[in-house]
Amino acid sequence: MVAEVIMNSAAKKLNRTFDYNIPKEFEDIIIIGSKVLVPFGRFKSLEEAHVVRIKQSSEFEIKDIVKVETGLTDKQIELANWMAKRYFCNVSECIKLMQTPGTRTKNIEKRIQDKKINVVYLKKDFNEINFDIEKGIIKSDKQKKILDFVKDNQGCTVPEIEAFTECSRAIVNTLIKKQYLELIEKKVERNPLNNKDIENTQNLILTDEQEIAFNKIEEAIDKKEYEQFLLYGVTGSGKTEVYLQLINKVVKEGKSAIVLVPEISLTPQMLDRFISRFGKEKIAVLHSKLSIGERHDEWERIKEGKARIVIGARSAIFAPAQSLGIIIIDEEHDSSYKSEASPKYNAKEVAKKIAKEENIPLVLGSATPDLTTFYNSNNEKITLLKLTKRANNSNLPKVEIVDLKQELANGNRSMLSFDLYQSIEQNLKDKLQTILFLNRRGYSTFIMCRNCGYTVKCKNCNISMTYHSYQNKLKCHYCGYEEKTVKTCPECGSDKIRYFGTGTQKLEQEIHKQFPQAKTIRMDVDTVTKKNSHEEILNKFKNEDIDILIGTQMVVKGHHFPKVTLVGVIAADSSLNIDDYRATERTFQILTQVAGRAGRENLPGKVIIQSYNPENFSIQDAQKQNYEEFYETEIALRKQLKYPPFCDIIVIGFNSTNEEEIKKVSKIAYEFIIDNLDAEEFKIFKPMPSPIDKIQNKFRWRIIIKGDMTEQANEVLNDLLKNLYSKEYKNTKITIDVNPNNMT
Ligand code: ADP
Ligand code: ZN
Ligand code: ZN
To answer: Half-sphere exposure (CA, 13 Å, Cβ side) for 524?
Structure first.
């Protein structure tokens, strides 16, 4: 017998199968999906590979498989093949997502909670490291293996590296000396499931609306049929209770459930509700804070059928759940379900594929559904289930809009409108908490010469540098490059250099100036670092005497602060002005969500939205908390301008160190596409530099195609990739992304 295997590598030239002989002793245990070790190429060492086909004979002279480890099922291999085609990546990259994280060779001691330990991070961007590997600056296989491991397991410990890579500490130290890795001292966070003594809860009696929803989905479970549902209801309308009861049913029948939530909402509070209903033995939680050892163990518990309920972020969709009975995706509009790194998969699409394969229902839940989802729920691809009332009768907060143009006309130049100022003052008096939200970090301070218009840009990335007053430095948010601040213009010598824009730091300073007595805490990409997690900041806000939380996007999701009665949005417009067809949808979603943070318990909440475009419909509809009205306006615009859901946006990205080559490759690609795709059905734009045309010294170009991503279009684009790679443009990397999150 002969096995066709795929090497466990992301190298493009290895994206094909190789034949190996199956020795007699392995004949019974090797199945499709088995992980094997094989001698490969001129290296003496053995390489990891996966069996994708078994056949009688080979036309080549072949070597023996040396070792076998149990791997994946054929269903998983089929899914990996499907993904590779659909998301234009290697099969092995998809297989990696489905494997038990790490193969352990030694036992590692458990991390002790609340103790400080040293953890390892990559010090450089992985692209840069890859570049050094390609250029032969990093030669040692062991060094490569460690770097690859740390890339997937940022924050691991040195003993973990030793146990999972079989390399010694000395090599780690070399990599630290060479500045590829860094050691950071960090407190071990508490595992959300440990030391929990939670009272059991029982099913609540469902409201009429909940019951209708539950019955519809139950019917699909009983009939063992695939069906996709959208459970649409405002925050607090009882969606989670419906999930819990569906899971309860499925588990009672001996099956399992996968529940996806955005990473950021995997909070202890959220998990408590699941634990109190099902007990922690039945639950596996997969999140990025787990160490590789813990992830390995959770994966095993799922595989053995001990854990029947899997709760996790995007990649938990690949958990090896035994006899799956339902998949639930909460906050389905959240952009984190789409991966931006290869494989650029969309977990909602993968979930649908799995649900169809297993004949089970897929339930999507949201208060502000993705426009495409809601559109499909109106045309019968998705069954719409509505919850219109809040389950616990709490009231929605009062939302006010302040016109900042008017404010300026009245002579108020501060970041806080008169209304917001007064409300903060009142809240401080009442000893209640406030959240101030700045929409987007891109709004932070940049430097400009008012004499000649010169702005300081990063020399690697061609985007404006951001001023950080605390360190008194200019920083590039893409590559981390830093420069000293300038006092005179390097272009014209004038001293009319000014700092523009509003960042969280500047807001914090202003708050301190206007309310010297207020205690504040800031949460943004600069304060949330390798050392301080979100959770620590949020816990401080909750437990310590802090009056005001100031932050970006990160503050808006899924947290529950009983004492927060006031939420202020500093400038709602900044997310409207970005160059993306989803700008209004995102603005509406974020404003609706942020409004939901105020007054969640008995205290009434108040939200103040400051805006330069108070008449914009996304802001108006967010004030009214009226999703459907927003949907009607926005979907009409999408239809008129032909944007998703009325077509797909396909972005072919080129990334190169060589400017001549990138022009040449993108031109060849363009001509190939023109020749092979129907001009009637696809609008194909000429190759152009991307909005950010240089990052980390690499040029960036792209081709945009508008049209339906059909099976046939997929073939054409896969052919394009094959063609270009076989021509060996060594300095250029090509990626294809369908409906990417980010258009820059
Ligand atoms: P959502 O997931 O839509 O935000 P939840 O399921 O969290 O809503 O419900 C909000 C609150 O209402 C929770 O405190 C929950 O316990 C309560 N609740 C939900 N369903 C019921 C019900 N049928 N009867 C009583 N209380 C309910
Ligand atoms: Zn100047
Ligand atoms: Zn840069």
So the answer is: 22
**Position in ligand 1 atom list of the atom nearest CA 387:** 3
Closest alpha carbon to 419 in 441, 398, 394: 398
Q: Interior CA angle at 713 toward 339 and 722, to 5°?
A: 75
Ligand 1, atom 6: closest residue by C-alpha:
238
The CATH number, out of the four listed (3.90.1150.10, 2.30.29.30, 3.30.559.30, 3.40.50.300), of the domain defined by the range 208-379: 3.40.50.300
The Cα–Cα gap between 53 and 16 comes to 12
Q: How many CB atoms lie within 10 A of CB 314?
A: 23
Say yes or no: CB of residue 366 within 6 Å of ligand 1. Answer: no
What residue spans of 166-227 are helical by DSSP H? Answer: 169-177, 208-223
Band the pLDDT of 484: cuts 50, 70, 90.
confident
Q: Using a 6 Å cutoff on CB, does residue 298 contact ligand 1?
A: no
Contact 677, 713 (CB under 8 A): yes
Rounded Cα–Cα distance for residues 161 and 168 (Å): 8
Contacts with 694 (C-beta within 8 Å, 6 or more apart), sequence order: 460, 461, 462, 700
Give the H/E segment covering residue 521. strand 520-523
Extended strands (E) in 413-516: 433-437, 446-449, 466-468, 473-475, 482-484, 497-500
Give the three-state DSSP class for 266: coil
Please say if the pLDDT value at position 104 is more than 60.
no
CA-to-CA distance for 484 and 474, rounded, in angstroms? Answer: 6
Closest ligand to C-alpha of residue 460 is: 3
pLDDT of residue 490: 84
State in words which class domain 2-99 has: alpha beta
How do residues 337-393 score in pLDDT, each as one tens digit? 999 888 999 999 999 999 999 999 999 999 999 999 999 998 889 999 999 988 766
The single-letter code of the amino acid at 463 is: I
From 15-24, 341-350, 600-609, 706-715, the region with the lowest mean pLDDT = 600-609
Predicted pLDDT at 631: 97
Structure tokens at 30: 């090797």
Torsion of CA 541, 544, 547, 551, to 10 degrees: -20
Q: Which atom of ligand 1 is nearest to the CA of 237?
A: 3
User: Is there an atom of ligand 1 within 6 Å of 265 CB?
Assistant: no
Residue whose CA lies nearest to ligand 1 atom number 15: 238
CA 455 – ligand 2 centroid, Å: 8
**Residue 234: nearest ligand to its CA?**
1
Does the 648-738 domain belong in CATH 3.30.70.600?
Answer: yes
Ligand 1 atom nearest to 241, measured from its CA: 6
Residue 195 has pLDDT above 60, yes or no: no
DSSP 191: P
H helix and E strand count, the chain:
21, 30
Each residue of 16-68: pLDDT tens digit?
A: 889 999 998 777 767 777 888 998 877 667 888 888 888 889 888 889 998 88
pTM, two decimals, is 0.83
Q: Give 690 Cα–ligand 3 centroid separation in angstroms.
A: 15
- Tell me if 237 CB under 6 Å of ligand 1: yes
DSSP at 137: S
Distance CA(433)–CA(431), nearest Å, equals 7
Residue 241 Cβ contacting ligand 1 at under 6 Å: yes
Is 240 close to ligand 1, i.e. is its CB under 6 Å away?
yes
The CATH number for 398-441+504-638, chosen from 3.40.50.300, 3.30.70.1050, 3.30.1510.10, 3.40.630.30, is 3.40.50.300
